[in-house]
Automatic annotation (TrEMBL):
Keyword NADP: no
Composition bias type Low complexity, residue spans: 398-414
Highest rank taxon of the organism: Bacteria
Annotated segments matching region Disordered: 394-414
PANTHER family per UniProt: BETA-LACTAMASE-RELATED DOMAIN-CONTAINING PROTEIN, D-ALANYL-D-ALANINE-CARBOXYPEPTIDASE/ENDOPEPTIDASE AMPH
Transmembrane intervals: 521-545, 570-591, 603-624, 631-653
Source organism (scientific name): Treponema maltophilum ATCC 51939
Protein name (record): Beta-lactamase-related domain-containing protein
Keywords tagged on the record: Membrane, Signal, Transmembrane, Transmembrane helix
Beta-lactamase-related domain segment(s): 65-389
Length: 654
């Protein structure tokens, strides 16, 4: 019994020892795992966010979008230079279900790249090498700008504020396939947009203008823009996992995650975007790298900066430099002021497969970075709205500009009986005005009408067909609670009771759509084009059928033939149909590749010109042969087709 008890005791002791050893091992493993987990959280990988209130907000918004509208997202927030929240959602690759790794995966940052141009400009001004208020022609090759319409000089501040007056740039916007990369000076000089507004008069967002500012940085610094950014911005901040080059390296391509577009059919993988105007939107990098840049910009006023010699220069960076009439927010040396809190500055970036936002709040030393791998703004917009809504000024007020309050309704001095003077159609200032790309502007038009009870105005966007009612808040300003945050305020700049421009959202003013830019004119062009196409198609079918019958008739009765006037008729129909088909094919391709290819555009112009000449000659021959009826009909069809093609911009060489 004793031996049994002792053996049991010994066995029990050994079991306890083993259990103790196992427990200690588990504790050691747990501690190791906990330390790795904490490190991962700090580095924004498979993270456990700090319990500071951000997790519930971000998780709540992400739950509404990730897997539905967006495949993947990464959100990082810093305060006082320290990461306080970092978390990724969804997938970098939907096929393999690869998770997003914010320390290694590259996103396309789109127009966030522009902030590097503006920081560079302030650095050069600090060194006395660049005057932001000087005529930019001082820094450009002689006669470099060929399409200037106004005598008023363009300054670097105009480029920062998007008030230089340039039309939208869509020609050869991106490199296609394996097209060789060209120097920035060649890209900018090859295709220059027309100047359609006087500098400083309206704000029309311009990629070309931002790239021109990047070129000025090159001219002043003596370095290519990518080299300048690498040396003067990335290097001081210790940023290695970011690249800004006109030509991507193999390493960048290897590390880029998939970008997607989303529709009712689901997600579709998009090609990477290689911008010709690379200073305007070609930054690639990891979220962890970009948050370093954002955190540096978010340093409190008067704090020493790694990017500037004098702290006052960074403070100046966030001083407002332009605000459209009645706007809820403005621009600060190219940085956007956030609508609901003008003490937050940043920029949005969108490519064909990515959407990003970078925001900094110096008064709180807070930086917010949002990155998604789909071109969809709602997630970023909703998240920012949730993050700052408690800090926004009460109700419906704006901050820095005395825009009035929505609660004042019609008591702000606006004539409530004369809202009809604002009625009409408005064309986006950021649009192509001179060639076929203007079709994109027609799709973005806005209609304004006084509402039925005369207490406000109704805004309707052609892009989505939705209508919103705006109420007056004084001095030609209106407010709509239900609109998107950046579109809640509407204002009309007038001169002698005539509307000059409409402020709708940041850096995107609208102007009254008159003459060639009205809906009536567009419909007349579309109707003319459709009528001509149907006529030429019907004529082609008729001549094809009649030709077959004629050949059969010739075989049975060789003496019977179609007559000498058949050929010019066939040529008219064929030329008209070829011209219309070339236009349709061109537009279809441009919408598919998100850019207008200059070779294709000029080929379409050449085809239209050749077909028109051939049709005119054929009609002249019919008149000569006194075939007046077909000559008049074909001449009229040709005139209708020419009217549509010329008005829509398909006779404009680019």
């Amino acid at each position: 019994m004793y031996k049994t008890v002792r053996s049991f005791s010994d066995a029990f002791c050994r079991l306890l020892c083993r259990a103790a050893v196992l427990f200690l091992c588990l504790c050691a493993d747990f501690c190791t795992a906990a330390s790795l987990y904490a490190a991962a959280a700090q580095n924004a990988q498979d993270v456990q966010p700090l319990q500071n209130g951000y997790e519930n907000i971000v998780d709540g918004v992400a739950a509404s979008y990730v897997g539905k509208n967006i495949p993947g997202a990464c959100v990082i927030i810093t305060e006082h230079g320290t990461v306080v929240f970092s978390k990724c959602y969804g997938y970098a690759n939907l096929d393999t279900q690869q998770r997003i790794r914010p320390d290694t995966d590259f996103f396309e940052w789109g127009s966030v790249t522009k902030t590097l141009v503006w920081v560079s400009a302030l650095q050069l001004e600090e060194k006395g090498l660049l005057d932001l208020n000087a005529d930019i022609r001082r820094y450009l090759p002689e006669n470099f700008l060929r399409n200037l319409r106004y005598d008023a000089p363009i300054t670097m501040l105009d480029l920062m504020n998007h008030t230089a007056g340039f039309e939208e740039y869509l020609i050869d916007f991106r490199y296609l396939n394996e097209q060789p990369v060209k120097p920035l000076i060649d890209v900018l000089s090859a295709r220059q947009p027309a100047q359609v507004f006087e500098p400083g008069s309206v704000s029309a967002y311009s990629n070309w203008g931002a790239a021109l500012a990047g070129f000025i940085v090159e001219r002043v610094s003596g370095q290519s823009f990518d080299e300048y950014v690498a040396k003067h911005i990335f290097a001081p901040l210790g940023i290695q996992d970011a690249e800004l080059k006109p030509q991507w390296t193999a390493e960048t391509l290897k590390r880029k995650i998939n970008g997607y577009s989303h529709s009712k059919k689901g997600f579709r993988k998009e090609e990477f975007m290689r911008l010709r105007l690379y200073p305007a939107g070609s930054l690639n990098g990891t979220p962890n790298a970009l948050i370093k840049y954002a955190a540096e910009l978010a340093k409190k006023s008067g704090t020493a900066s790694l990017l500037f010699s004098d702290p006052a220069t960074k403070d100046k960076l966030f001083c407002e430099t332009y605000r459209s009439f009645g706007a809820a927010s403005g621009l600060a040396h190219g940085f956007w002021e956030y609508t609901k809190n003008n003490g937050i500055f940043g920029h949005e970036g969108g490519t064909y497969g990515f959407q990003t936002q970078l925001w900094v709040q110096p008064e709180r030393e807070r930086a917010i970075l949002i990155a998604t791998n789909v071109m969809e703004s709602d997630f970023c917009r909703s998240l920012m709205n949730e993050l700052v809504q408690n800090e926004a000024q009460a109700g419906k007020e704006t901050s820095a500009n005395a825009n009035g309050s929505a609660s004042t309704n019609a008591a702000g001095g606006t004539d409530t009986t004369n809202f009809a003077r604002f009625s009409g159609e408005y064309f986006p200032a950021r649009s192509v005005w001179t060639h076929a790309g203007k079709l994109n502007g027609y799709m973005q038009m806005i209609s304004i009408q006084q509402n039925t009870d005369g207490t406000g105005i109704v805004l309707k966007k052609r892009s989505d067909g939705k209508s919103l009612t705006y109420r007056p808040i004084g001095n030609n300003r209106f407010y709509c609670e239900e609109a998107l945050p950046e579109e809640q305020y509407l204002a009309f700049k007038t001169e002698s009771e005539n509307v000059i421009s409409m402020t709708f959202f940041l850096a995107h003013d609208y102007v009254p759509a008159k003459g060639r830019y009205s809906t009536g004119f567009l419909l007349s062009c579309a109707a003319a084009f459709a009528l001509a196409f149907v006529f030429w198609l019907a004529s082609g079918i008729f001549f094809a059928v009649s030709g077959i019958r004629a050949r059969r008739a010739i075989k049975s009765a060789p003496a019977i033939h179609a007559g000498s006037d058949r050929l010019p008729k066939v040529l008219c129909a064929a030329c008209g149909l070829i011209a219309d088909v070339s236009i349709i094919a061109g537009m279809r391709n441009w919408f598919a590749i998100y850019t207008i290819d200059s070779v294709q555009m000029n080929l379409i112009v050449a085809i239209n010109a050749a077909c028109a000449l051939c049709t005119v000659c054929s009609c002249a021959y019919l008149f000569y042969k006194k075939r007046f009826c077909p000559a008049v009909i074909f001449s009229a069809a040709c005139a209708v087709q020419l009217y549509a093609a010329i008005c829509l911009g398909f006779f404009h060489i680019v």
